[in-house]
Design a protein that fits this description.
- The protein has a two-stranded antiparallel ribbon with strand order 1-2.
- By secondary structure, it is mainly alpha-helical.
- It is globular, with a radius of gyration of 21 Å.
- It contains twelve helices and two strands; from the N terminus they run ααααααααααααββ.
- It has helices at residues 4-11, 13-21, 37-40, 46-63, 77-85, 91-94, 96-109, 117-122, 152-166, 178-186, 202-209, 215-236; strands at residues 239-241, 244-249.
């Protein structure tokens, strides 16, 4: 199940990279890339991060199963991923923080837009439960254009169903993650550009734009780039096996 989070992060990088930028010192980033303070309040806390990292480490220690077929076919990208992970016994533990950060960004994205600074400041306590998710009110004459963030029940059911689906697969192949990724992507809240016209806080506006329907253009470009690189490698990076001379082998997912 840990492998699914880098998969989601890689293929949805246009959606998730703002979360990783929020981890960096903001003064070192160009102004357009700086995350508003509201998005940085959702960074993982130590009391959650440390137990989660420990559990992930135990999963890696006792449940890292590498199917013989995974290391038997060097035409698949997963062959090279696992060859790298198995190069040294410590490497599989060193990537646990990567699993954690990818999972954190993917699950956080299901919650939708972060609270605006003004609303966060008015909150009486950080521990006070929020009864309703933050919403953007539609401007006059428009319907509510913000899709609701995924509920806690939805996220838990998604995690349970995805876990039952993935852990029963004998091999680790990207195709097994397609349906969980698709269901995750359908739950990402979106807001149309028409709902942005009345936002007065420019710091919040930059963060909001990542969830507008305009992100579809960035996602499409990212997918086209991935397909172009994959197609180029498939067509031009062929190789042969000594036991099958004259037959060109090609890289594939």
């Amino acid at each position: 199940m840990l492998y699914i989070w880098p998969y989601i992060t890689f293929f949805s990088l246009p959606l998730l990279y703002p979360y990783f930028l929020a981890l960096l010192p903001q003064q070192l980033l160009p102004s357009p890339l700086r995350s508003p303070s509201s998005s940085r309040t959702s960074l993982p806390r130590l009391k959650v991060s440390i137990p989660t990292l420990l559990v992930m480490g135990l999963v890696v220690r006792y449940n890292t199963i590498v199917h013989p077929f995974t290391l038997a076919d060097n035409r698949h990208y997963t062959f090279y991923v696992f060859r790298l992970l198995l190069r040294h016994p410590a490497i599989k533990y060193l990537v646990v923080p990567i699993y954690f950060l990818c999972a954190w960004s993917a699950i956080s994205a299901l919650g939708g837009l972060p609270e605006e600074p003004s609303r966060a400041a008015c909150s009486p306590s950080r521990s006070t439960p929020r009864t309703k998710p933050p919403k953007l009110d539609a401007p006059p004459g428009h319907a509510n254009t913000l899709s609701s963030p995924a509920t806690t029940a939805t996220v838990l059911i998604y995690l349970l169903a995805s876990t039952l689906s993935v852990i029963t697969a004998p091999l680790v192949e990207p195709r097994y993650f397609i349906v969980p990724w698709l269901l995750w992507r359908l739950q990402i809240p979106t807001v149309s550009p028409s709902a942005l016209s009345h936002q007065s806080d420019p710091r919040h506006e930059m963060r909001v734009k990542f969830y507008t329907k305009d992100i579809l253009f960035f996602e499409t470009g990212w997918f086209l780039l991935i397909n172009s690189v994959t197609g180029y490698i498939f067509l031009h990076w062929g190789f042969t096996w000594p036991q099958e001379e004259g037959k060109v082998q090609r890289f594939m997912w």
